[in-house]
Amino acid sequence: MSKVPVEEKLNWGLLGPENLAGARRVRTLGLGAAVRKFNQLAVPGLGGVWFAKQIFLAALGVRIADRLRPINANVKAIEMANAVEALACWCAFESNGWNSDTRLRGRQKLADKDNLTFARLRQPRFYVVQPMRMATVEALVELGFVEPGTQRFNSFRCSQAAMDLIEAATAGYKPRNSTVENYLCARGADNDPISNTESLRQALSPLVILKPDARSLIRDKLCTGAGPNGEGAVRRRNALAWVGTLEPNSPAGWDTKPMQLEEDHWSDLRLGALFFKARDAAIGVLDAIETQIAPLASPRLSADDAHKVASVQTQLKGLNDAARNFLDEDKDPTDGNMATAFCRDCVAEDPAAIIRNLVKRDDRVLRLVGNDVRPGAAFSGHPQKEMSDEEDEGPGASNAGRVPVPAGASDRIRNLYLLELDLQGRLGEFLNPPRADEAA
């Protein structure tokens, strides 16, 4: 079967270190710390995880690095976790005819590759810039799957809980009459080609649900936790119970507090949604300006002229309303009242000043030169979907609107809903529902 994939929306290239620079279209607006705070209040310790196999694959990569390090001091946990993830996605693509799925990455990078060894899998440029592994850092620590004391992935060492997870997830799978862990460690040591056996594919493929005992272990860690922030387990447990009651295509609202959540947790979720709405409205203003200047022979527009454009005025009105709604709450859990300061800037009397402030905060897609708004390094000329706050595409654009969480809620609530579906064994059918003709 042909393995010529269509162009994907991910950025390909050098794996590199944990933090990558570049002209990716990410508008943080200088609000990264505030976003992280509201995400932590929503679902502490989850990071960008949205299905269980992300945790398993990252833990397996760390475990293999642990075992190989005594015979090769140059083995790094990041490289091995990326390699295991790449192998898992390659196995899945090989089995599904190289069809897209939101649980898989690297369709373009991995196509037409064979004779895989760990020496190749670990190479820079072999896999994607943003592996799923990056979304698991916080969860591995907070859920107790790595030894405490560090937040850096290359310093991770598997805890007993991670070893238990690997054993439960791979029980019964015997590639080449070996355990999955032993087989991969052997290939990591001798760099012989890895055999894509059915047993190995079933164990690794992100499309194959984890075994029940492994899912139970992850659920237990979500509800109890073992990391440095033990108090966060209470909010995770309550939120998990709540999202488990939500029905697809029936979005929950903000009018009534769910019985599963404490009052302060619900209040933090509502406040976070108001902040995210203001943040998104600010991006809407910037998008409107970008669209306006794109066709100009000399793409620039003064801030004084920009606010006179009808589409920009509409977006400014939405921003004003959203920012005032946040300010009316008179509550801000962020360090230095960062969220409040941002919203106050967004309700300034001079609309040109609001635009100048937003463009200064952006400085990626648009930049301010004097009083002129000009293209930045990530300028495209038309609005595009921003990367999510957790550096993870989550369920994909075709499914995001079907997640029945309240409007504006932290992405972590959306991700927790999906994770709960996965722990129930229902994520696959949610992500890929049968077509009408198939269901008939």
Explain briefly what this protein structure is.
This protein is mostly helical.
Structure description:
Helices cover 49% and strands 2% of the residues. The chain is mainly α. The chain has two domains: 45-241, no CATH class; 263-375, no CATH class. Strands 1-3-2 form a three-stranded antiparallel beta sheet. β2 and β3 (372-375) form a beta hairpin. Mean pLDDT is 88; it is low at 1-23 and 387-392.
User: How many distinct folded domains?
Assistant: 2
What is the subunit organization of this protein? single chain
Low-confidence stretches: 1-23, 387-392
Strand content: under 5%
What is the overall silhouette? globular
Give the helix proportion (percent range): 40-55%
Query: What is the arithmetic mean of pLDDT?
Result: 88
Total strand segments = 3
Radius of gyration: 23 Å
Strand order of the largest sheet: 1-3-2
Largest sheet: 3 strands, antiparallel
How many helices? The count is 20
Find the structural class using helix and strand composition.
mainly alpha
Please trace the helix and strand order, writing H or E for each element: HHHHHHHHHHHHEHHHHEEHHHH
